[in-house]
Amino acid sequence: MEKIYKNVADMIFAKESFKFGAFKLKLHEEDPDAPLSPFYINLRDKNNPKPGPLVIDDYVLIAKCIFKAIIGWGDDMIFDAIAGIPRAGDPIVKAMMLIDETTDINQGDYRIIQLAKEEDGEKRRIVPLPGFEYRDGERVLLVDDLVTGANTKLEAIKAIESSGSKVVGLVVLVDRQQGGREQLKKAGYRLISCFTIRELFGYYKATGKISGQKYWECIDYINNN
Fold first, then answer.
1. How far apart are CA 183 and CA 89, in angstroms?
2. For the chain, how far is it from start to end, CA to CA, in angstroms?
3. For residue 31, what are the CA distances in angstroms to 24, 149, 187?
4. What is the CATH architecture of 3-224?
5. Is 46:55 a contact under the CB 8 Å cutoff?
6. Whole-prediction pTM
């Protein structure tokens, strides 16, 4: 694992972004009887309505990791704008605009696309931001913290493409490997992640951050759900 990935993996563990126990996920809104997850990843910031442990310096480190992953896509990944999926993706996108080191992606060549989240009780959906200037044919890269299922990602894609732009791909920090990548591929969209959840747990086990018992508890859940 490259140094930037190790730095991010160590940071999110030290920040206690990983919780272990028994947790409901977004997928339980549609499938209440699904098994509870033995782990939970909270990559949100302190200003989120559901606060998380991360601050701007953490997101700058994550943004560097995201850029590394984007560059790995090669020359076929060309975009005019980036869009964070509200709300967890927004601070990552903001941090991407702050990075001042030289990369293969020229900052200033793209702009931020804004989306909105509508909430009706327990139900939430991603919609175009009222009054925002969307541009026909603009190529948009979607950014989020993680992927479990693809429903929220597909809502964001629909919101962007219903406004005339085109989503060229999605990038996340963590793929929980619970079907989201496959759903997006079936819908015709490419996803790249900095980490799969198996890679993270393998690294944490190898560095003594979690026990072998905890590792296999989480892997068994991933394998069966």
1. 19
2. 26
3. 10, 12, 21
4. 3-Layer(aba) Sandwich (3.40)
5. yes
6. 0.90
